[in-house]
């Protein structure tokens, strides 16, 4: 595969940008290769600087559920752009996106727009601490909630990929208020809440974990979080940055019937432009400035272009039957992957919720971060590079998810499965363990 232009661009980028990228996981360090520089994208395809074309399952890490350059989204952004790009003053677009989010998620009465998932979770934590007057927070190993100091503890995604469970520069004083517990371990959670529950400001969780690979909640886990936060006066925060409008129009909370106190969103609600949001019960959100005393602000929060992209995206996702199409396409991929794996000599496990899938090179169920860390990352690296050669663009890390979009048609799925079969044939069981 020709990579001259990407290589040249990467060499130049590294002179001016740390690691040559603006987000660590894009550097492809964990799969031992250089990043491809992208020229353009259309539908489910992405085209790099050397003219190579790939079926894209990263989808900008989740936002591109409609596929790239969706005509309605492009048109909506262009129309707003004709009137300006940023005013630093309220626009009706912000209220329209807020209404769409509130209509979609019954747990949300009010919502505040920010510019990233990190800002959303960081602000939600501050709000929970202010409302409860408590400092200690609980997160779960392998869950990633962005790079705010207080959350960079046993995080997943790029932090796990780079093997930096914390990070230099995060003071011990900050993270001493952060407890990280095993994901999907209701008993451990109950023990901690019995002893410390009255000091816990909030519990933040990815209701479906997508940053240690795709790990669904086991029966009773989310229910335990809801019951014990309720009982101890702690705030339950669902980080639906990845799952919001992804696994269902109402997010994971609608799928599992659990109503959190605060929900964090980003990715899909921005339709590919920078947006984050946090929202919840009116009595909680009323604490946020300027209505209340909890300060949070942002120059480009509610940016008109980003709002337009988000509105256009959610308007389409409201179309009846659209999640059935996503489900059918994703099921086709899951079943096809299982068939190909079963016929290969490589041990691999597929896990899926809706259009989010995980492929783990292991022969055991993956229910938590320790399970995920036992996967054979060398094999994943070989698989990633092999799939790239076959024209399929996966996340450059075992600790990420595969995203199916509405632009992936059955031919794309079948082409992907043929590529998987060919690549797995080149990998042998003896390499796995
Ligand atoms: P951002 O600050 O990157 O917009 O969102 C942080 C975040 C928060 N919560 C969840 C559940 C997330 O998945 C993320 C970000 N996801 C990663 C991909 N796993 C972003 C990719 C990257 O870091 O470049």
Bound molecules: ligand KE4
**CATH fold description of the largest domain:** Aspartate Aminotransferase, domain 2
Please report the number of helical segments.
Answer: 15
Mean pLDDT: 95
Q: What is the element string, with H for helices and E for strands?
A: HEEEHHEHEHHEHEHEHEEHHHEEHHEEH
Radius of gyration computed on alpha carbons: 21 Å
Outline type: globular
Look at the structure and give the CATH class of the largest domain. Alpha Beta
Name the CATH homologous superfamily of the largest domain: Type I PLP-dependent aspartate aminotransferase-like (Major domain)
Largest sheet, spatial ordering of strands? 4-10-9-8-7-5-6
Query: What structural category arises from helix and sheet content?
Result: alpha/beta
Query: What is the number of E strands?
Result: 14
CATH architecture of the largest domain: 3-Layer(aba) Sandwich
Number of domains: 2
Ranges with pLDDT <50 over ≥5 residues?
none
Sheet bearing the most strands, described? 7 strands, mixed
């Amino acid at each position: 595969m020709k990579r001259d232009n990407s290589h040249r661009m990467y060499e130049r980028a590294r002179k001016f940008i740390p690691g040559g990228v603006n987000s660590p996981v894009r550097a492809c360090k964990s799969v031992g290769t250089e990043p491809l520089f992208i020229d353009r994208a259309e539908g489910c395809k992405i085209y790099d600087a050397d003219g190579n074309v790939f079926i894209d399952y990263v989808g900008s890490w989740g936002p591109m559920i409609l596929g790239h350059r969706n005509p309605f989204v492009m048109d909506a952004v262009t129309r707003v752009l004709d009137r300006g790009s940023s005013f630093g003053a309220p626009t009706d677009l912000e209220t329209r996106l807020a209404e769409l989010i509130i209509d979609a998620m019954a747990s949300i009465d009010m919502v505040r727009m920010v510019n990233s998932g990190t800002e959303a979770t960081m602000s939600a934590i501050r709000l929970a601490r202010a409302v409860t007057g408590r400092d200690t927070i609980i997160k779960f190993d392998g869950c990633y909630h962005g790079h705010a100091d207080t959350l960079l503890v046993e995080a997943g995604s790029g932090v796990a990929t780079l093997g930096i469970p914390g990070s230099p520069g995060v003071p011990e004083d900050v993270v001493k208020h952060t407890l990280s517990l095993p994901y999907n371990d209701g008993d451990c959670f109950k023990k901690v809440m019995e002893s410390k529950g009255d000091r816990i400001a909030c519990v933040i969780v990815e209701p479906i974990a997508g940053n240690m690979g795709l790990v669904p909640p086991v029966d009773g886990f989310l229910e335990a979080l809801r019951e014990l936060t309720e009982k101890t006066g702690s705030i339950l925060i669902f980080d639906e940055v990845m799952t919001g409008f992804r696994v269902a129009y109402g997010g994971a909370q609608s799928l599992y019937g659990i109503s959190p106190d605060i929900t964090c969103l980003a990715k899909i609600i921005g339709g590919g432009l920078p947006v984050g949001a946090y929202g919840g019960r009116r009595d909680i959100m009323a604490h946020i400035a300027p209505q209340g005393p909890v300060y949070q602000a942002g120059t480009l929060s509610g940016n008109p272009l980003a709002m337009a992209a988000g509105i256009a995206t959610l308007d389409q996702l409201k179309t009846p039957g659209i999640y059935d199409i996503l489900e059918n396409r994703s099921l086709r991929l899951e079943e096809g992957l299982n068939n190909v794996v079963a016929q290969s000599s490589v041990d691999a496990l597929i896990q899926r919720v809706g259009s989010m899938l995980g492929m783990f090179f292991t022969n055991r169920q993956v229910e938590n971060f320790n399970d995920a860390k036992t996967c054979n990352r060398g094999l994943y690296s070989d698989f990633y590079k092999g799939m790239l050669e076959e024209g399929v663009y996966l996340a450059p890390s075992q600790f990420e998810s595969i995203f199916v979009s509405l632009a992936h048609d059955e031919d794309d799925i079948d082409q992907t499965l043929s590529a998987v079969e060919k690549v797995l044939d080149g990998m042998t069981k003896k390499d796995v363990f």
